Amino acid sequence: MNRIIRPGSIKIIIREYASDPFKILGVSRSMSKKQIHAEYLRKCMKCHPDMFPDDAAKNREFQNLQSAYERIMNWEEHQKFEASQKAQENREQEREKRQDRPETNWFSSPTRAG
């Protein structure tokens, strides 16, 4: 895992959740926009640059929260994200199906006598 852990249990996640705004905000996909907004405000209060002007880590966390919130609340971006997640899941399922198949040796045939 690529994490930078700061004092006060502030964790800035560099790559792990970079593409999933729901994980950045710590919300589920089934939550309403009102619930997501409330969670966003709660998290922003913990790292707002006006409250912590000298802490660069909290400033970066605040920026990550803002971009994640914008991606979720912008309906077009949200739909693009959902479509890309479904496509990724489909690719993973296809990959698993291919791995479950027994390997076939195309050069040896059961009808050929060896």
UniProtKB/TrEMBL annotation:
Residues of the J domain: 20-85
Bias type Polar residues, positions: 105-114
Annotated spans, Disordered: 80-114
Pfam families: DnaJ
Domain of life from the UniProt record: Eukaryota
Compartments, as annotated in UniProt: Cytoplasm; Nucleus
Keyword Chaperone: yes
Coiled-coil regions listed: none
GO cellular component, one term: cytoplasm
Keyword presence, Chaperone: yes
Bias kind Basic and acidic residues: ranges: 80-103
Keywords on record: Chaperone, Cytoplasm, Nucleus
Record InterPro entries: DnaJ_domain, J_dom_sf, Pre-mRNA-splicing_ERAD
Single biological process term from Gene Ontology: spliceosomal complex disassembly
PROSITE patterns membership: DNAJ_2
Protein name (database record): J domain-containing protein
Organism: Oikopleura dioica (Tunicate)
Organism taxonomic ancestry: Eukaryota, Metazoa, Chordata, Tunicata, Appendicularia
